[in-house]
Amino acid sequence: MCWSGFRHGRRPPLPGCWPATRPLLGLLTEVTLKKSRWNLAILMGRLPLTVAEARRVAAFLEPWLEDSSSIIKTAALQGLADMARMDPSLLPGVLDVLRIRGRSGTPAMRARTRHLLAALEPEQDGRRKRRPASPATDRIAD
Asked: Rounded to 5 degrees, what are φ and ψ at 122?
């Protein structure tokens, strides 16, 4: 029943209740095509995942940062940032990865890391910087 309310626009789905979550999580271990990998990395951030699932996804995305394709690296960075929003315990490690990756790579990768850092890093005075709308919250706009 957790899915029916979301389908009809009454409420967002509960973590772990989206019907395709388990099959998509299973694809993380099997997917080899580059286009499928980067789309899957982006899609993971849009799923309502539990904390355990977010940790599992983050563990699968980290090796993708070493891929030869810059678009897969960039998508993996976005996916890791989305997982850190779902599981705050991942935040320190993800911030470190973003800071390191923001020093090298293509201009698109550096721009993406700057954008993600601005969204995730706290302000100096303790307040958070204005966070751009997350794709996961955009779909719940009603």
From this structure: -75, 155
CA proximity to 58, closest of 95, 18, 107: 95
Host domain of residue 78? 42-122
Asked whether 32 and 64 are in contact (CB, 8 A), the reply is no
Express each pLDDT in 71-120 by its tens digit: 999 999 999 999 999 999 999 999 999 999 999 888 989 999 999 999 99
The rounded distance, in Å, linking the Cα atoms of 57 and 51 is: 10
pTM of the model: 0.74
pLDDT(62) > 90: yes
Report yes or no on 30 lying in a domain.
no
Count structural domains, the chain: 1
Tell me whether residue 90 is in a domain. yes
> Are the C-beta atoms of 5 and 18 separated by less than 8 Å?
no
φ, ψ dihedrals at 96, nearest 5°: -60, -45
Sign of the Cα torsion 94, 130, 46, 40 reads negative
CA distance 142 to 140: 6
Q: What type of residue is 134?
A: S
87 within domain boundaries: yes
